Prior knowledge:
By secondary structure, the chain is an all-alpha fold. It contains seven helices and no strands. It is flat.
Amino acid sequence: MAGQSTGERVPGKKYRQVVEAAAVGDPTNRIARNLKLSWPTVRAIIQRESRDIADRKQELLDQSLRIARRAANRIEDTIDEANLSQANFVYGTATDKIGQLSGDPALIIRHEHLHAHAHQHRFEPITADNYLAIIDALPDAVADDDPKVAES
């Protein structure tokens, strides 16, 4: 079947690498580039193995949940011991993995930045008609009280 990408001729090791990378959520373009395969070939393998990939994601999710529970229990048990930072690191990593693998929007932490500036932000597109006016409105780059500028 010349001209049609099926992934059937991809060697076993490389084929498994495509499936593993897709299971952890790597984009198709990155998988194709890293493994030196065409995008259609990688896409065909992912489509063919989508059930297997979903099963692998579920296995990783279950494992991460178990690790997170064990780490949380260890943190509780060792709250007064020096090894707490290590358990906390493992717990944070496992809970991050849970959020990535489960896709649960309730686990996604939304970061919002408060713009508490003294001035108002204003967007004005730069066009051929208004760019000189925008440049003229900018403050001077050199301060009047700079002695080096006053001498020149």
